[in-house]
Amino acid sequence: MAEAPKKQPKLLPIVRKVGDLRAEVAKWRRDNLAVALVPTMGALHDGHISLLQAARRRVDKVVVSIFVNPTQFGPTEDFSKYPRQEAADVEKLIKARCDLLYAPTVDEMYPEGAATTVHVGGVSEGLCGASRPGHFDGVATIVSKLLNQAQPDIAVFGEKDYQQLQVIKRATADLDIPVKIVGAETVREEDGLAMSSRNAYLSAEERAIAKQFPWVLSALAIEISKRPDDFGRRVQNARKLLTDSGIDKVDYLEVRDAETLEPVTTIDRPARVFGAVFIGKTRLIDNMPIPPRK
Ligand code: PAF
After folding, report:
1. Per-residue confidence (pLDDT) for residue 197, from 0 to 100
2. Which of 66, 74, 79 is nearest to 142 (CA)?
3. Are 184 and 158 in contact (CB under 8 A)?
4. What is the rounded end-to-end Cα distance, in angstroms, of the chain?
5. Running along the chain, 294 residues long, what does each successive block of 10 average in pLDDT?
6. Who is most buried in 3, 42, 63, 245, counting CB within 10 A?
7. pTM for this one?
C-alpha cells in the first residue's frame, strides 16, 4: 500500500527588514492580491486573532507586525516588562493562517538620527492622551511608519483602544496615506473583561475585581441611553461603584462623541462611555457605545 503523504509542517515566513517586507508585498501586488496589515505589539490573544480574521474576510493576504514600540511608553510605564513571546505568537499566527510576520528590531524602526514625530491634535487630547503624555505621538509615528513600509490596502485595529483608532484614522487622512482603516469590535472574556495583553499582569484576586469594570461601564451606557441629559451625577455614581468594587483608582470615566471624542453632556449623536482604571499597578482601559434610545 502506498504510504500516505507526510503532512508538511506549516511555516510562517518572518521578515525583520523593511526591504524584505516590501519585496514580499510586491510579489503579491504583481498578482493583483489585496493586502492587510494588522499592527500589534505581540503577546497575542484571541482579540488579536479576531483582527486577523477581520482582515482575512476583506483581503487576500494578511501581514501581522509585532513590534513593542518604545516611543509610546512613558518613562515610568511597562516597556521593559511588556510581555515578549515571539515563539508562542508564531504558533498562534500559523493556526490563524497569517501570511507573513513582520517583526522588526528597534534599530530597523528607529535608525540612528531618526528625528520625526507624528503629532495628531484634537482626538489625541484628553482621556489616555491626558494620562499618558506623548503616548499617541509614539503610536501615530510608528503606525505611519508601518503603513508606509507595508503599503497595505487596509489596516485593522481593535475598538478596545478606541481613542488610538480615532488618532490613526485622523493621522492617515491628514497625511494622505492611501489605506482604509478598519475598526474591529472588542473581544471579551466570558465574564465581560476586554481582552488585553495587560490582563496577564493581574493576580487572581485582581482579576476577580477586574470583571466589575465592563459591567459598570455597560450599566452606565444603558442608564445614559434611557435618560440622555444631565448624566453627570450618574457618571459620579459609576465612579464610586468602581472604587467600591475594589478598583484602586479611576483614571477617567467620561462620555464623549464617538467620532471627534469631544466631551458631551447630552446624547444627540453617537457617543461612547470611556474608562481607564488601575487595579494594583495594572492600568486597564475599556469603552462602550451608548445604545440608541428605544
Ligand atoms: O495597539 C497596539 O498594540 C499598538 O498601540 C500599535 C497599534 C501596534 C502601535 O504600536
Report:
1. 95
2. 66
3. yes
4. 67
5. 64 97 98 98 98 98 98 96 97 98 98 98 98 98 98 98 98 98 98 97 98 98 95 98 98 98 96 98 98 84
6. 63
7. 0.96
Q: Which of 24, 198, 41, 192 is nearest to 104 (CA)?
A: 41
- Cβ partners under 8 Å of residue 32, min gap 6: none
131/137 Cα distance (integer angstroms): 13
Nearest one of 6, 15, 105, 122 to 64, comparing CA atoms: 15
Cell of 121: 491634535
Distance 234 CA to ligand 1 centre (A): 32
CA–centroid distance, 195 to ligand 1, in Å, is: 14
pLDDT the model gives residue 10? 72
> Sign (positive/negative) of CA torsion 82, 84, 89, 90?
positive
**Mutation to probe ligand 1, out of 128, 142, 169 (largest number of atoms < 8 A from CB):** 142
Cα separation, 25 vs 210, whole angstroms: 41
Asked whether 72 and 139 are in contact (CB, 8 A), the reply is yes
Ligand 1 surroundings by CB, under 6 angstroms = 39-41, 69, 72, 139, 142-143, 161, 164
The Å distance, Cα 201 to ligand 1 centre, comes to: 18
Q: Is 194 exposed, middle or buried (0-12, 13-18, 19+ CB in 10 A)?
A: buried
Mutating to test ligand 1, I would choose from 69, 84, 135 the residue with most ligand atoms within 8 A of its C-beta, which is 69
Catalytic positions, please?
A: 48
Query: What's residue 9's pLDDT?
Result: 61
Q: How far is the CA of 158 from the centre of ligand 1 (A)?
A: 9
63, 64, 78, 143: which to mutate for ligand 1, most atoms within 8 A of CB?
143
